[in-house]
Amino acid sequence: LNEADLIGTIERLLPAAPPDVLAGIGDDAAVVRIGDRLVLLSTDMLVEGVDFDRSTITARDLGYRAIAVNLSDIAAMGGSPRYCLVALGMPRDPDPAWFVELVSGMVEAAREHAVAIVGGDLSRAETVVLSVTATGESVPGGVVLRSGAKPGDRLVVTGRLGAAAGGLRLLAAGPREAARARSAGWGRDLLDAQCRPAARVAEGQVLARAGATAMIDVSDGLARDLGRVCAASAVGAIVRLDRLPLAPGLQDLLRLTGDDPLDLALHGGEDLELLATLPAAAVEPAAATLAERFGTPLTDIGEMRADPDARIVATSQDGAERPLAPAGWDHFGT
Ligand SMILES: [Mg+2]
Predict the structure, then answer these.
(1) Which of 121, 173, 186, 190 counts the most CB atoms within 10 A of its CB?
(2) 32 DSSP 8-state letter
(3) How far, in Å, CA of 13 to CA of 277, rounded?
(4) Which of 7-14's residues contact partners 24+ apart within 8 Å by CB, and which partners?
């Protein structure tokens, strides 16, 4: 059973959602109506040994990342995050200094986005387990689901791809290599993307207002996450590989570890960049706004096209089309 199979089982066993649930399982966040407001709900868990390694991430960065990955899911709906609940499992006798740093990192990420941490739960666990639940509100422009992409829409992505996966490979290369790459400059962006990723909250709202028809945050790799948009929207996509905005440090990483930049960009996860579909006329104004206000690049990397089988095709410089397999991070895959 892979992750998708397990989610499918849960969906089949759940009773039909009540009418005030506008979007349930299967998007970055659920959308529910409470009174006259649309509320976004999302949760995400980080498990030691699976999602992070305590020997390579500081407690402060871990706390920051735990909040950021949740705010990113609210961002992917075009929403405004408001509150977080934090559930934390830890082995017996945690180091007090480590714990203070962990909470400080959470506070830092929450403060950056004016989010309040309003409660949670503590328990004992074999390893560190950090689960955060975030709520958000929809903003003018409305909620952007994964399911609204139309044939002819352009496919755009914020920022650069592959940095977080590159940071992970750099950490795996060893502490000396990582430290050397950081001081040489090129490693810093990769390590920060892995340990201290930025949630594209303001960017998500701009894209929603610009008329984004679908949106997702790239948490499991471009290929897999684009596959989710295609499946939810029942459209295909063509991705121009020569246009992918590769993180600059990846060329240096290639020389050190042999990791292919394109492979990291397509299949590496955790970049927390936003992948959106937009009507063609909306791309340039949205890109200009993001560049002016936040200095965030927005790159047109392809087009959605009619295909009821929701296939993704990649083209490289030679123009040849190849199917792009939705490989990427799967918690239960091999
Ligand atoms: Mg997501």
Answers:
(1) 190
(2) E
(3) 32
(4) none
pTM over 0.90: yes
> How much distance in Å is there from the Cα of 319 to the middle of ligand 1?
31
- In angstroms, rounded to a whole number, what is the distance separating the alpha carbons of residues 29 and 145? 9
CA of 216 to the centre of ligand 1 (A): 6
Strands (E), 208-316: 214-217, 236-240, 274-278, 298-305, 312-315
Residue type, 323: P
Cα–ligand 1 centroid distance for 225 (angstroms): 8
**DSSP assignment, residue 241?**
G
Q: How far is the CA of 94 from the centre of ligand 1 (A)?
A: 30
Residue 43 Cα to ligand 1 middle (Å): 10
Q: Which residues contact 174 (CB under 8 A, 6 or more apart)?
A: none
Please tell me whether residue 268 adopts helix, strand or coil conformation. coil
CB 125 within 8 A of CB 90: yes
**Rounded distance from Cα 217 to ligand 1 centre (Å):** 5
pLDDT digits (tens, 9 = 90+) for 64-97: 999 999 999 999 999 999 999 999 999 998 899 9
Q: What type of residue sits at position 146? A: R
Record the tokens describing residue 12, joined without a space.
């089949």
Strands 116-124 and 79-90: parallel
Q: Which residues of 162-191 are buried (b: 16+ CB within 10 A; e: fewer)?
A: bbbbbbbbbbebeeebbeebbeeebbebbb
Selection from 157, 177, 158, 193 nearest residue 252 by Cα: 177
Q: Is 267 exposed, middle or buried (0-12, 13-18, 19+ CB in 10 A)?
A: buried
For 179-224, how does the pLDDT look when each residue is reduced to its tens digit (9 = 90+)? 999 999 999 999 999 999 999 999 999 999 999 999 999 998 999 9
| C-alpha 86 – ligand 1 centre gap (Å) | 18
Tokens coding 269? 């996860």
CA of 147 to the centre of ligand 1 (A): 14
